Amino acid sequence: MLVGNVKKPSGPLVPRDGLPPLELLRSFESAARLLSFTLAGQELFLTQSAVSRQIQQMEASLGVPLFERRHRALALTEAGRVLHRAVSDCLERLGDAVSLVRATSQLRQVSMTCTPGFASLWLIPRLARFTANHPEVDVRISAKLEVLDLERHQIDLAVRFCGFSDGTGEPLFEESVVPVCAPQLAAGRGNPLKKPADLANHTLLTLDLPQGKALTVDWEPWFQLMGLHDVRMKNAVRFTQYTDAVAAAVAGQGVVIGRLPLLDGLLRGKQLVMPFGGGAASQRGYYVMMSARGEENPDARDFVRWLRAEAEDNRGKHAQGDVVEPTR
């Protein structure tokens, strides 16, 4: 095959003969730039005699002297100056290429920690909108109830769920609570849910709380809003994760206290309904906290701005009445 007037070999490429090894070229470039074998050795972490031997090896292979050895001084010969210009240029271009390749291959990443409920019910259904606009950024989510130390675990940011008095960081949104269930359960022929007293005929889906706490402790803000002192239910099914209790509610297995806005997507999709009306403020909320590492990561800062924009958009949908109305 001909390319221009040059015939391209069909077999393996022949190695270029006559080029000194890269380590010799580096030693030559350093010695030529500094005009000192001693300083070149210090720069390259070699001894002065090792640099001197490498230069002698190059001169022997080229058949010309590259330096004039003067008393306590070095000077480049004409051949040395020609070679130095070429070697300096090549090493600089090689360094630029390596830096470019390394920079483009570096992983851009945002790491965060949050509760399993926030991750499954609020974050993950929205996450595709962030990744679509930031395809080069990997997002790592550590969803657990354990509160992780951001600096020690090298995590960029956290979304914490806590009471207003304990909130640290910037508030993302407040929580309100309201009983929710599957549409078919609310409108059931035998035991429809029309008033709070009807809960007595239904199963409570709740978390396995520490001993001494009432199963309906998360319902208290709603009880107060409705002027109720206590509501007894037929029986209870306990879960270790809130997301499992919600899944059971979607399957029509009982009534769970809905944490808004975590469940807004399920309400808009009509997988869950609010049989008795709107929610009550729980005096708890979600807060965004960034580590020093995260503050220095531009992708982490973009992620936090995206979180806030999503929270604001969700509040806007509430204001426009875009959440399913209670079943009557």
Which word captures the global form?
rod-shaped
Count the beta strands: 12
N-to-C SSE series? Answer: EEHHHEEHEHEEEHEHEHEHEHH
User: Would you state the CATH class of the largest domain?
Assistant: Alpha Beta
Rg over C-alpha atoms, rounded to the nearest angstrom = 35 Å
| Multimerization state | single chain
How many separate domains make up the residues?
A: 2
Task: Provide a descriptive summary of the structure in words.
This protein has eleven helices and twelve strands. It is of the alpha/beta class. The protein folds into two domains: 18-105, Orthogonal Bundle (Arc Repressor Mutant, subunit A); 109-319, D-Maltodextrin-Binding Protein, domain 2. An eight-stranded mixed sheet has the order 6-5-7-12-8-11-9-10, sandwiched between helices. Strand 9 (203-207), helix 7 (220-226) and strand 10 (235-239) form a beta-alpha-beta unit. The termini are far apart. Residues 1-15 and 324-328 have low confidence and may be disordered.
Task: Name the descriptors.
alpha/beta; 2 domains; disordered C terminus; 12 strands; eight-stranded mixed sheet; 41% helix; Arc Repressor Mutant, subunit A; 328 residues; D-Maltodextrin-Binding Protein, domain 2; disordered N terminus; two-stranded antiparallel sheet
